[in-house]
Structures are given as C-alpha cells and as structure tokens.
Design goal:
By secondary structure, the chain is α+β, with helices and mostly antiparallel strands. It is built from two helices and five strands, in the order H-E-E-E-H-E-E. It starts with 5 loop residues before the first helix and ends with a strand.
Length: 109
C-alpha cells in the first residue's frame, strides 16, 4: 500500500465506500463521477501504479480483474445490453489516480 494513494486508502478502509465486491485480490466500487448509468471501478488490492508498471507476476491479477468485470456486468444488469471495459494509462492517457484500475461503464438506453 502506498500511503498517499487514494485507492489504497479506500482499500484499507481509511476512506469509506460501499464495496460491491471485495476479496483478497480485487475490490469493486462505484465511480464518484460516473460517466454512464453504471460506472464501476475494478481495483486490485495490490498497489500497482499503472499498466506500465506491470510485471509477469501480475498476470493473475489482470485475469481476475477481467473476470470480475464480467461478473459485475451481469450483477449490474448490463451484460446482455453491452458495456465497455477500459484502462487509462498515464496522464496523457487520462489516468488520474495512479493505482491500476479498470472502468466498467454501461447502462445506456
């Protein structure tokens, strides 16, 4: 955990949020500035700064993130209608919080 990382503080319980999913590897919660009717953040509990900092050892985490996205889309009722899953990488790619995370957005009519 990084002491100044917003997502590490959320994972640690220092900043309250409602977890829609939580296990040893992944947490899921709603984005506070949603860009869609459903906008979830899928975040590894291990602090990884960005995609550029991934190592071969992180492959299981990435797989778990994607499988969790699929499960959450179903739970949120957007799996049949469709949804987007994406990762912003570094400031130029739109990354604002420097803790790897995946966005799941959907629910448009």
């Amino acid at each position: 955990m990084e002491k100044d990382c917003l997502f590490c503080k959320i994972i640690n319980g220092e900043i309250p949020t409602e977890f829609l999913h939580k296990d040893d590897t992944i947490v899921v919660f709603r984005d506070i500035y949603p860009q869609a009717p459903v906008h979830l953040l899928i975040v590894p509990t291990t602090h990884i700064r960005s995609v550029n900092d991934l190592t071969d050892a992180n492959r299981p985490i990435l797989s778990e993130m994607m499988m969790t996205a699929k499960e959450m889309a179903k739970k949120e009722g957007v799996s049949a209608s469709g949804y987007r899953v994406f990762v912003n990488v570094e400031k130029g790619g739109g990354q604002v919080i420097f803790h790897l995370h995946m966005h799941l957005v959907g629910g448009w009519k």
